[in-house]
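Title: [Solved] Tyrosine phenol-lyase 3D structure

Original question kept below for reference.
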Amino acid sequence: MDYKYMPEPYKVKMVEPLRILEKEERLEAIKKAGYNTFLLNSRDVYIDLLTDSGTNAMSDRQWAGIMMGDEAYAGSENFYHLQETVQEIMGLKYVVPTHQGRGAENILSQILVKPGTYVPGNMYFTTTRAHQEMNGGTFVDVVIDDAHISDKEDVAFKGNIDLQKYENLINEVGAENIPYICVGVTVNLAGGQPVSMKNLREVYELSQKNGIRVMFDCTRYVENAYFIKTKEEGYQDKTIAEIVKEMFSYADGATMSGKKDGIVNIGGFLAMNEEDLYHKACALVVVYEGMPSYGGMSGRDMEAFAIGLKEALDFNYIKHRVEQVEYLGNKLIEAGIPIVRPIGGHAVFLDAKKFLPHIPQNEYPAQVLAAEIYIESGVRTMERGNVSAGRNKEGKEYFPKLELVRLTLPRRVYSYAHLDFVAQAIINTYNRRDEIKGLKFSYEAPVLRFFTGRFERL
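Solution (posted by the thread starter after getting help):
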């Protein structure tokens, strides 16, 4: 018997009621929010696809772990459980907890990034680049060119580092001026695209040869491992845990937001193999986060985090997660909606340039589209284009090749019926695309403007 899709590999124990506003109310809500979906009140949102960061549904075992919280100010038992779990799964020696991923980025950047240094990476991420630039560094994109082409679908690993670009940078600026290479697994702003094991191995070998650290942004490393298992030759019979262990053997450390593949609502860490780096990180975590044994998290949060890291390695869990994203993406492809291909691991990304070709990039088509989807349906999505890219050191806008709207699926939250509704909302918006107009800033924050910026219609 053929099934349209396999149902969720879990059953519901608790529910949260949803409500949808009338269209006039949605118009008023988005106008009040300055046409920025980040500034909407959650009570005014029907289906929330803004992010998968901290919006996950925890398991019964995680909730049981919450009751095991050791809230000691120093030496919490839950920290040791989290530390042992990271060491077991990733093989990294030292763990410094933080309140979330950007706390780890801040500490790493303050220690290693100095004025005049360069940090290569496979496409920028907003907060990561901001921390690097605030410490005087320069981010350099060394992802393969295909990653910037939204409809290039015959490339299985669009998150790969271009080794020639990386080597050219080393020769140009000198290895001594590159404190580390930041490898995102997966690459968020390319559309949730994975990096192959072969590429990770080659990047590590080139880095070791030149004395450069390899630091993963491992926020969605389990999704990356799933793609390696299903797309890369020689890994079909490997478990997710085995693939993860090999992935991290090609890294010197990592930053992580536990709010994604940790399946929790808060938490993160900076992990590394280098003892001197660890001691420096411990000194800074006290200043910005908390004691090295809690780093901005409560004991109960660390316990849920440790349990979630283990649950995320279950193949049935990650298969369902990625297949939900594929289901939504394929429904949009069938309807002729332009999206990033191949479909990534955590979200479907709409190509706003092709969706709204009459709106120039300086009128922020992705921001426009996210607002219009909300007006159409009450579904909240996120801009990932010119607004997110921000401005360079001279104050000029970046105008990235990819102008995207991200439809991000929280883990273990929505059903396929919710996804059918989302797909129809996108189709309805597409059918009236010619009547949609651009936006201009009415308020622009100096850093990470996409979080708090406000707009008005042209």
